[in-house]
Design goal:
Strands 6-5-4-1-2-3-12 form a seven-stranded mixed beta sheet, with helices on both faces. The chain has a three-stranded antiparallel beta sheet with strand order 7-8-9, with helices on one face. Strands 10-11 form a two-stranded antiparallel sheet. By secondary structure, the protein is an alpha/beta fold. The chain is built from 18 helices and twelve strands.
């Protein structure tokens, strides 16, 4: 069955994580995504373990369901080939800073002259109306600027970056959401539009629903920062042989928890009587749970708490996640035979649609793999393609 974006064409001039992640999501939903790379290729082609040059693990995980073309936009031939792509696309997405893109001649106003109804998506560090506009930004920078790093220190722990590119991927999700909305508008009206998805604003939007707190009111009635979520005692609990993540929350869950451990007498403790009391005395509550957790093994707690209806899971190593039985049951890890990389493991889209399901239809492409084919589809004959290749205006990794 075709995906919901079947028939939609996307020209993707993004690199590294934030942009490729967002365009891959559109590809999963059926869009035809043409990945445009500069002569030196996407940086992630050389990032992480690899069997062959230009096909590193990070690239594989960000670029399924795409075809690849390599263009030198600093040459007239390469720029004209890019204009040919833009004339016949529904959506263009990039994550370049504004000034370099304008120098190349592909800012929104000039692209709109080429294709008046194009959807044009800018992904960059900071909104262009603010004082940080145009500044370079990477995941670590945005983690720090958005307050995410400070949350560790707020909880009494040493401030540090989260060891995941969470700002990139969060922004990528917002970008895919915005582009999907613009595509819906275009399908309904025929109109294109310009989209701006800044990393800084996206990450602040992600963090502050639970952390704006007293600053939600004017004048403020308290400081920002959710004490409950950042308490030093809010750690995974130690068990006899390891750790477990467990969180009795509602009154029903607390009663089930105390019954399971034969400590229903603790329900009379005033700090446990209702959610308000438990929140106000969160340190004492966490300490109480921590003492009880030391009495059993992780496996014993996992079984006991699940039977009591208390949310819980053991802490999994990365290796254990890859081997997780539930993920195997739902077919999350999908194996494919790649033409150059052999057998590879990719992640299927984590959602499903009964009538227009997302699919993995294309292998992550080799550098310039589809350059000649894409140019031919856009009106270039064999002699013209050969000339552009000879001039270095385009590159074909298959040569």
């Amino acid at each position: 069955m075709p995906g919901p974006f079947d028939g939609i064409r996307v020209v993707d001039m993004t690199t590294v994580f934030v942009g490729p992640y967002s365009s891959q999501l559109l590809g999963d939903m059926g869009a035809e995504v043409i990945k445009v790379e500069a002569p030196d290729g996407d940086l992630t082609r050389g990032s992480g373990p690899a069997q062959n040059t230009g096909m590193a693990a990070s690239f594989l995980q960000l670029n399924r369901n795409k075809r690849a073309i390599a263009l030198n936009l600093k040459t007239e031939g390469g720029a004209e080939a890019f204009r040919a792509l833009l004339r016949e696309t529904d959506l263009f997405v990039h994550n370049m800073r504004p000034e370099p893109l304008e120098r190349l001649g592909f800012d929104y106003d000039r692209v709109r002259e080429i294709n008046p109804n194009i959807i044009y998506c800018n992904i960059w560090g900071f909104g262009r109306e603010g004082r940080y506009a145009g500044q370079a930004a990477y995941d670590d920078v945005i983690q720090g600027a958005s307050g995410f790093v400070a949350l560790e220190g707020f909880g009494g722990k040493e401030a540090r970056y989260v060891p995941s590119l969470i700002a990139d991927k969060t922004t990528g999700l917002f970008a895919a959401y915005a582009m999907s909305a613009a595509l819906y508008h275009k399908l309904a009206t025929g109109e294109g539009q310009e989209i701006e998805v800044p990393m800084f604003e996206s990450m602040v939007s992600f963090i502050f629903p639970e952390h704006l707190c007293g600053e939600s009111f004017l004048p403020p009635i308290g400081p920002p920062g959710s004490i409950r979520h950042a308490k030093p005692m809010r750690w995974p609990y130690k068990t006899k042989d390891g750790h477990i993540c467990a969180l009795p929350s509602s009154d029903k869950q607390w009663r089930g928890f105390l019954k399971a451990v034969d400590r229903e007498d603790l329900w009379e403790n005033p700090i446990l009587k209702d959610r308000k009391s438990r929140t106000a005395n969160i340190d004492a509550v966490n300490a109480l749970i921590g003492e009880l957790m030391l009495e059993r093994t992780t496996a014993e707690w996992t079984k006991l708490l699940a039977e009591a209806g208390v949310p819980c899971m053991p802490i999994s190593s990365l290796e254990e996640v890859v081997a997780d039985g539930h993920l195997a049951d739902v077919g999350f890890w999908q194996e494919m035979d790649h033409p150059s990389e052999g057998r590879v493991r990719l992640m299927k889209p984590p959602y499903s649609l009964s009538k227009s399901p997302p699919t993995i239809r294309r292998d992550p492409p080799r550098f310039g793999e589809h350059t000649s084919a894409i140019l031919a589809e856009h009106g270039y004959d064999a002699d013209e393609i050969a000339r552009l290749l000879n001039e270095g205006a385009v590159l074909d990794g298959m040569e």
